[in-house]
Amino acid sequence: MRPLIKNYVAEDATEQYLIAKQGTADYQSLKSGAAATNSLGVVCQPGEVAIGDRMDVVILGEAEVLCAGNINAGKSFTADADGKAVAANATERAVGIVLEAGAATRIVRCLVVPHTA
């Protein structure tokens, strides 16, 4: 199954593997902050993305995400303040589920499927 990818204009600098959230206008995106309630998905645009650049974001389906800490395989994840994946708690809106064990600075496969952890 191919992931559902949408294109957005970056309102701030970001990069591949970080979590994106809805920007201030339609079709605009920001790097996600800690446990943002409006997270969209994971940036899949290769390399760094500058303000005003267009970028692709996986909003549903398999992607790769950069972890900020340990996350067990099969667990829900959300964003930390830097847009990296961290384990979501039961009251947070999760971006998806990691498909393999994550650790700080590790890029892991994930399933982007927004839900409440």
Q: What summary fits the major beta sheet?
A: 5 strands, mixed, barrel
Helix/strand structural class? mainly beta
**Total DSSP helices:** 0
The ordered H/E elements are EEEEEEEEEEE
Instruction: Tell me, rounded to a whole number, the average pLDDT.
Output: 94
Structurally, the number of domains stands at: 2
| Sequence of strands across the biggest β-sheet | 1-4-3-5-7
Q: Note poorly predicted spans.
A: none
Describe what you observe in this structure.
It is a single chain. This protein is mainly β and 117 residues long. The protein folds into 2 domains: 4-59, no CATH class; 63-116, no CATH class. Helix content is 0%, strand content 51%. The chain has strands spanning 4-10, 14-15, 19-22, 28-31, 39-43, 48-49, 54-66, 76-79, 85-87, 93-98, 107-116. The protein has a 5-stranded mixed beta barrel with strand order 1-4-3-5-7. The chain has a two-stranded antiparallel ribbon with strand order 2-6. It is globular and about 35 Å long.
